[in-house]
Amino acid sequence: MSNKDYILEAFVKLGQFISQFSSEGITKNETIPHNDLFFDGFKHQIKLANEYNGWFTQKNIQFALYGWSKQLSEDNLNLWTKDYNFSDVQPKTVAIIMAGNIPLVGFHDFLSVLITGHNVLVKQSSNDKHLLPFLAKYLETVAPKLKGSIRFTEDKLENYDAVIATGSNNTARYFDYYFKDKPSIIRKNRNSAAILTGHESSEQLDLLSEDIFRYYGLGCRNVSKLFVPKNYNFDAFFEAMYKWNPIINEAKYANNYDYNKAVYLMSEFDMLENGFLMIKEDQSYASPIATIFYEFYDSTEALQQKIKTDKDLIQCIVASGFDDNEIPFGKTQKPELSDYADDVDTITFLLKI
C-alpha cells in the first residue's frame, strides 16, 4: 500500500468515527474501531468546545462533523486526489495557522498536508482548540505511522518549511511580511454574496436562509450580501427567513442584534428588520452579525463586471444562471473537497514545495 493510500484509509476510518456525531444525533456504532477509547472522550470535547465558545453550539458542531463524515468517504477522497501525482513528494513540515470562526474550519488544510505526505505543525485559534487534537489522536491510533507527523503548538512557529495561514486583513499583512521567505498561502477576509432576480422560488429562498444563518453567519462562505434588482420586493425573502426566528432566543446572537440595531437607529440609517434579521443598503460585503447588506444592480452584465472587479473580496457567489462559478442555493456550507478556499489549489501548492 502506498503512503497516500495508507493515509487516505486512515481518514476514511476517521470519517466513520465522526459519523456517529452527525446533525441527526449522537449514536454509538459498536463496529467503529477504538470506540471504547474515543467515543465518550469526543462527546466531552464537543461539550468543552461549546462551553468555551458560545458560537460553537452542539448543533453547529454536529453539522460540521456531519459534512466531514460525508466527505471522508473512500469514493470522495479517491475522486478528489485521482488527478494529482503524489509520487515525488519529499516530506516537509507545513505550518498551518488556523482561523476559529466556525468549527473545524482548518480541517481541509490539515487533511491536505497529511494526504500529500507532509508533516503538519498546527497553530490553532484559541476559539477552536478542542476538536482537532482529539481527532488527530484517533488518526494516530488507526494509522500508527502518522505518529510524529502531527504536532500542535501554542508557541512561536519554528522548524517548518512552508505555511498556510488564515486571518483577518490586518493579520495577513503581518503574515506576508513574517513568512516572506517561505512558500506560503496567505488567506484574508472574504465574504459571500447571493444574486437575486425576484423570480426565485420559495424553495430557493428557503435554501438561501441556510446559507445566511448557518454558523450565525460567521463563515466566509456564509452569504452576508445580496445583490437585487431595482424595486426588489423583500416580502418573499423575509417570509423565507422566518423559520430561523428562534435564533433570537440565543444570547450571543440577540446581543449582537440589539447592539447593531441600536447603532443603525442612532445613526438614522435606513434598514428593514423582522425581529431577528436586519437588512441594510450598503456597498460593503462584510456585514455584522444579524445583518445582511444589499445593493441594487441595473443589469446582469454590469453586475458580472463588478463581481469580477471584486473577486478578491468574495469567497463564493450563490445564484441561479448567473455564471459558471456560481453555487446553488443552500450549498455554501456543504463544500466538496475540491472547493478550495480563495480558489487556490492547496494540493498543487503542497506537491510543489
Automatic annotation (TrEMBL):
InterPro entries, per the entry: Ald_DH/histidinol_DH (IPR016161), CoA_reduct_LuxC (IPR008670)
UniProt entry keywords in alphabetical sequence: NADP
Name of the featured protein: Acyl-CoA reductase
